[in-house]
Amino acid sequence: MFGCVNVTTNINGIPYLRTNSVTVGTDTVDFALGFRRIPPVGYLTVNIADAIPTGTTETLPVRFTLNGNTRNLTFFGGTNVTAADLTGTGVVTIFYDWYNGILQLTSPLAPTV
To answer: Residues 37-90: pLDDT tens digits?
Structure first.
């Protein structure tokens, strides 16, 4: 058996994606990222251009749809990112692993002023 398996991510750079829309449902807040050719594993820089509307239930989990695949955005440990965590617009860094169902926020969120 060989040593550690080396997994290379983002061989051609880190994709920079912009949200196309935000939809508030009764159970989730969904951001659309459209159809893009990105590696199935790696980091994404996402420009959240569409703010979650004021008055949205703060406990709703946030999901992103990319290439027809929708996943909950989570923190380290698997806790869902909620509407209360993503206020306003801005840029976040996310780790994406299509094979293992991971969509994890890796950048810290700045406090709202």
So the answer is: 888 888 989 999 999 999 999 999 999 998 888 999 999 999 999 999 998 999
Sign of the CA dihedral with 60 first, then 65, 71, and 74 last: negative
**Pairing outcome for strands 29-32 and 21-24:** antiparallel
Which structure tokens are listed for 57? 């239930």
Return d(Cα 43, Cα 73) in angstroms, integer. 13
Residue whose C-alpha is closest to residue 96's, from 72, 79, 113, 77 = 72
3-state helix, strand, coil in the chain (%, to 5): 0, 40, 60
pTM for the complete prediction? Answer: 0.85
Check residue 37 and report its DSSP letter.
Answer: -
The residues that bridge with 80 in the sheet, in sequence order, are 74
Single-letter code of the amino acid located at 23: T
CB count within 10 Å of CB 96 equals: 23
Q: What angle do CA 88, 91, 95 make, to 5 degrees?
A: 120
